């Protein structure tokens, strides 16, 4: 042999080359192996889990974090799903030791024959190594690291552990990581309820979760699903009949909801609190925050507010398209242009984005973000006369398949309800849509309360000896250049407190503040949690010209329902870690005394008259119950519209107005705009609750002829008249003696 190599040196080179290659490969492998990371991330697998926010009754209302993941142990992952995944991604998973050399040879042969349809040969273990430790760059160095890491992983972890981590770690599009999260986001169901077609769609996603996303690219996803169904049939996991049925059945893929949905502003408030408390780890630790919100009540509040804003917008002139695109005639260019339009102008809940494709004298054809084509007819066409192809519009569905032209409401609003006894917030809606405006109007918007502020003025006078029958002048009032007027333009000689509050008479309330003094009236209002510095120190205080938030108004009215005790609103009940261990539990703040129980009761009786025969009577009529107390509020020129009120077990405030204050409209009012929102929310909050009128306190009051008095002011000691001429006792006696 040696003689042969000497005589033929080229043969030596031929023999030495593979040996040198093997030696060089061994050296490189040794060097790469030494550089491989430790496997702590796998041996002690702690997946990133998002921050989840729940309602009190366990409904998901918000989720935060780059990765949406539901960790599911392998024993709870259905065997058909496991088998389908292995059949598609790694059929020899339980046979190889990290690298599938047979698969490499098969892929090599396929790629030689089909250079335009290349196949890969990465095992599940290699994919896991790349996902956890490496990048997706196509380099020899990365491939070498990936292969050796796969071997190292197989040497340290069992097959079941590798598969469990893979099925919970892999990215599957739409921020879903792992099959549990993907099943929830795409189909709204757990893994054990997936059918054959849904399993096939999911196991096809690891190939390219971005380009095969069934929400964004349904046709591609369907084609991939059909390929997977063929593979599952070929290996005997499903029958031909099952494959055909799954092939023919359309997938019901749901579009993922935006951040939160029914409680977006509340969820954001919780997120900020959790980041303050736990730092950036709040997004990855798998924390679950349970709030005090009642899901049905929250959903009712959001739906009612959105409906009110849509109705307000319906009374406004149409402002035209949000944008107008230059649309290609068809093909991929048209699809790309439409995708860009829907991304720039996303749906806002039930308010759908539509792009105008064509319009005639009798109909207009539009396309929605999900590809559905709709037709507008009738009155909407008159508005679309000047719109051209490519116009970006908004539409609302009214009944099955009936669509109406609409537009994004410009006004905002807020709803807050809470438990008067504990202060637990049951519903908090901070605006029309969080995607449009993250400003939380429920907690941050300081607006003029208008007539909704009047009960606090009445409460101050009651504490000085007034009662429901105290008569007050309703005649026009002027002070310098200030000449306020009653909302209805009507003036009477005198009204009782009950009548005046029920009719929301401004002149009466001005004279009450005049009698008390602005300083004392403002200080009294501060007892209910209002910022004293934000209230004017003059007679305009009577008209609610200060600044309050909807949350403050809800708390203030709750004090009347809670025997004069002012609750402090709170939202987070408890926080759990990923293992369900409670990390923090709320200690609800104790209410503090705002006014006496007797003052709260007597003021409430005036508010009961408002909801029975006054400006808020619509509330009792809508709910069909007589244990409601509340007050409308409409500021000058209808800039702010309010309704605030309570029942024994719930207090709430609703505000509607433009972010930059301006008139809502000449005929708009708190009773017309805000009251229906309050009533719709309370209808759900009080469902099944028996009538519970407030009971008088056990001491401090006396009742005469059906009216209540402070016991020390009963009879002639009570305030009888304000702003009216004094009664001459002799004349009164003479008048009485003249009566038959």
What percent of residues adopt helix (DSSP H or I)? 40-55%
Biggest sheet descriptor: 6 strands, antiparallel
Strand elements, count: 25
Separation of termini? Answer: 151 Å
Please provide a written account of the structure.
The chain is of the alpha+beta class and 740 residues long. Helix content is 40%, strand content 15%. The protein is built from 26 helices and 25 strands. The strands form 7 sheets. Strands 6, 7, 8, 9, 10 and 11 form a 6-stranded antiparallel sheet that branches. A 5-stranded mixed sheet has the order 2-1-5-17-18, with helices on one face. The chain has a 5-stranded antiparallel sheet with strand order 13-12-22-21-20, with helices on both faces. The longest helix has 27 residues, at 9-35. The protein is elongated, with a radius of gyration of 35 Å. The termini are far apart. It holds the Pfam family Transgly. One of its GO terms (cellular component) is plasma membrane. InterPro entries: Beta-lactam/transpept-like, Glyco_trans_51, Glycosyltr_51/Transpeptidase, Lysozyme-like_dom_sf, PBP_transglycosylase, PCB_OB, PCN-bd_Tpept. It comes from Pelomonas aquatica.
């Amino acid at each position: 042999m040696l003689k042969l190599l000497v005589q033929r040196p080229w043969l030596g080179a031929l023999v030495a080359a593979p040996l040198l290659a093997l030696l060089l490969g061994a050296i490189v492998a040794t060097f790469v192996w030494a550089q491989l990371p430790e496997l702590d991330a796998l041996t002690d697998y702690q997946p990133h889990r998002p921050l989840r926010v729940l309602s009190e009754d366990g409904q998901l209302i918000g989720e935060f974090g780059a990765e949406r993941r539901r960790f599911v142990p392998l024993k709870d992952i259905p065997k058909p799903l496991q088998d389908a995944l292995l059949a598609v991604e790694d059929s020899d998973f339980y046979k190889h030791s990290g690298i599938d050399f047979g698969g490499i040879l098969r892929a090599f042969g396929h790629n030689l024959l089909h250079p335009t349809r290349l196949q890969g040969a990465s095992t599940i273990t290699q994919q896991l190594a790349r996902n956890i430790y490496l990048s997706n760059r196509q380099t020899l160095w990365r491939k070498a690291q990936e292969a050796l890491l796969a071997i190292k992983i197989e040497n340290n972890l069992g097959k079941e552990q590798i598969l469990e981590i893979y099925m919970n770690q892999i990215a599957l599009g739409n921020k879903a990581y792992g099959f549990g999260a993907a099943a929830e986001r795409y189909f709204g169901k757990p893994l054990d309820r997936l059918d054959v077609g849904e399993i096939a769609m999911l196991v096809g996603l690891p190939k390219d979760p971005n380009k095969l996303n069934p929400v964004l690219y349904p046709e591609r996803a369907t084609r991939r699903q059909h390929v997977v169904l063929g593979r599952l049939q070929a290996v005997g996991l499903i029958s031909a009949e099952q494959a055909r049925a799954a092939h023919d059945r359309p997938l019901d893929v749901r579009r993922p909801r935006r951040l939160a949905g029914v409680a977006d502003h509340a969820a954001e408030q919780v997120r900020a609190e959790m980041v303050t408390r736990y730092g950036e780890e709040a997004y990855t630790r798998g924390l679950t925050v349970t709030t005090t919100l009642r899901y049905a009540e929250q959903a009712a509040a959001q739906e009612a507010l959105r409906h009110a804003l849509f109705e307000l917008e319906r009374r406004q002139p149409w402002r035209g398209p949000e944008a107008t695109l230059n649309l290609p005639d068809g093909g991929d260019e048209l699809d790309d242009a439409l995708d860009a339009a829907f991304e720039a102008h996303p749906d806002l809940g039930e308010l759908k984005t539509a792009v105008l494709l064509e319009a005639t004298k009798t109909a207009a054809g539009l396309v929605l973000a999900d590809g559905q084509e709709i037709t507008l007819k009738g009155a909407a066409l008159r508005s679309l006369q000047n719109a051209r192809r490519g116009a970006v519009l908004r539409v609302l569905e009214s009944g099955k398949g009936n669509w109406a032209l609409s537009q994004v409401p410009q006004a905002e609003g807020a709803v807050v309800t809470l438990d008067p006894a504990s202060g637990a917030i049951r519903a908090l809606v901070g605006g029309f849509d969080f995607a449009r405006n993250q400003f939380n109007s429920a907690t941050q918007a300081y607006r003029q309360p208008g007539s909704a502020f009047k009960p606090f003025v009445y409460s101050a006078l009651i504490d000085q000896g007034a009662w429901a029958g105290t008569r007050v002048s309703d005649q026009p009032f002027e002070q310098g250049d200030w000449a306020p007027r009653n909302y209805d333009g009507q003036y009477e000689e005198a009204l009782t407190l009950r009548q005046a509050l029920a009719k929301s008479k401004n002149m009466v309330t001005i004279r009450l503040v005049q009698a008390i003094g602005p300083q004392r009236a403002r200080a009294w209002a501060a007892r209910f949690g209002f910022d004293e510095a934000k209230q004017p120190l003059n007679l305009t205080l009577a008209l609610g010209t200060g600044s309050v938030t909807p949350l403050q108004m809800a708390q203030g009215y709750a004090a009347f329902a809670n025997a004069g005790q002012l609750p402090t609103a709170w939202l987070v009940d408890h926080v759990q870690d990923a293992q369900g261990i409670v990390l923090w539990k709320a200690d609800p703040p104790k209410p503090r005394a705002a006014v006496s129980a007797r003052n709260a009761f007597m003021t409430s009786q005036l508010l009961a008259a408002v909801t029975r025969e006054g400006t808020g009577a619509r509330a009792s009529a809508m709910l069909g119950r007589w244990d409601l107390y509340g007050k409308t509020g409409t500021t000058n020129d209808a800039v702010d519209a309010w309704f605030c009120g309570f029942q024994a077990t719930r207090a709430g405030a609703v505000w509607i107005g433009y972010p930059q204050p301006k008139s809502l409209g000449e005929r708009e009012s708190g009773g017309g705009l805000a009251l229906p929102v309050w009533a719709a929310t309370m209808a759900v909050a009080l469902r099944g609750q028996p009538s519970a009128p407030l009971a008088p306190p056990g001491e401090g009051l006396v009742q005469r002829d059906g009216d209540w008095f402070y016991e020390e002011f009963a009879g002639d000691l009570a305030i009888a008249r304000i702003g009216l001429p004094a009664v001459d006792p002799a004349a009164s006696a003479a008048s009485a003696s003249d009566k038959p």
